[in-house]
Amino acid sequence: MQASRKTALVLLALVSAALVGRLVLTGDVSGLVAAVENDYVFLLALVVAYVIRPFLALPVSLFSLIIIFRFGWLGFPIAIVGTVFTSLPPYLLARRYEGDSAILGRFRDFGSDAFAATGDLRGIIAIRLTPTPADVVSYGAGLSKVPVGAFALGTAIGITPWVLMYMVIAQSARAATGVANIDLRLLAAFAVLGVLLVARPLAKAVRRWQRRREHSNN
Fold this sequence. Notes:
The chain is mainly α. The chain is built from 10 helices and no strands. Helix 3 (39-56) packs parallel to helix 5 (75-95) and helix 5 crosses helix 8.
């Protein structure tokens, strides 16, 4: 019985990946939304797709657009929860890393110093506000041993402005023109806000990290 359940889950994951992948490559978001008529089946397929998304390197923003396009404002909290959920696998994978790679070791040391200076929650919020790839942030937070609670809450808060922007895009896609009028200044504002949140403590962390590196090389 357990083997058959695993087989069913694998088949469901493959079907979901094939469906999402095909429609993503063709850019047919509306086709993906209409592919499953039942909302519960649609959500189940999205859960499976969220699980396998990090391993397929699919953008998180696409999933948020699909959910909001399907459910409207009801999709707003679903998109936030889904983003936090799909960010956990790379975070947890990196958190378990105990290797001695020179590059990853330096990245881990710098990240630990940076989060120690800014605070785990504020640091995650700030970097989520910037247009840094979601999985890069997740791996970095895991390597830096950011607590799970701070990572999840910081991700939820930091992505909220982005999900609001996806709402505008989805609503525009529903219009007759299908054109989303997104002011690039809004993207710049998100990035600036993220930098301002951590600029001062992060600058101190960078100087401390540089001094430590110089000391270790002497």
